[in-house]
Amino acid sequence: MGVDATHLQQHFPARTLDVDFIPRVGGEGWVLVTGDNAQNRKPAEKKALEDARVIAVFIYRGFTKLKLFPQVAFIMRHWLAIEERVAKVRPGTSLEVNVNGKIEIL
Questions:
Q1: Which of 10, 41, 99, 101 is the least crowded, having the fewest Cβ atoms under 10 Å away?
Q2: What is d(CA 79, CA 11) in angstroms, rounded to the nearest whole number?
Q3: What's the whole-number mean pLDDT along residues 32-39?
Q4: Based on the structure, what is the number of domains in the chain?
């Protein structure tokens, strides 16, 4: 796939607050793909994403309740569409991938 994906815990301690790691994600130009939809609902996290100009991809609510294999299968099934959509948006844009794989700007 030609993608260098890592878990945030490879770069930050496990209990790092979202508002503390988000600026580095933006500074590195990384795309944040997450099942933590609270980052887009909480005002401080939402502002941090916008200020750091992070492209964030939120996977549907309930995604994190799936077992690992179904999570991986969902990401693999929709990865090319996610990549294509990310390539078309400006930094600071948040996207949501719904349970059917439809991607919308938030």
A1: 10
A2: 23
A3: 90
A4: 1
Q: Report yes or no on 5 lying in a domain.
A: no
In 1-106, where do the E strands start and end?
31-34, 55-59, 94-97, 103-105
What is the reported pLDDT for 4?
A: 78
Q: What is the mean predicted confidence (pLDDT) over 7-28?
A: 91
The torsion angle over the Cα atoms of residues 39, 83, 69 and 42, rounded to 10 degrees, is: 0
Phi, psi angles (nearest 5°) of residue 60? -50, 150
Does 48 reside within a domain? yes
Q: Three-state SS string across 40-70, please? A: HCCHHHHHHHHHCCCEEEEECCCHHHCCHHH
How many angstroms from the chain centroid is the CA of residue 13?
18
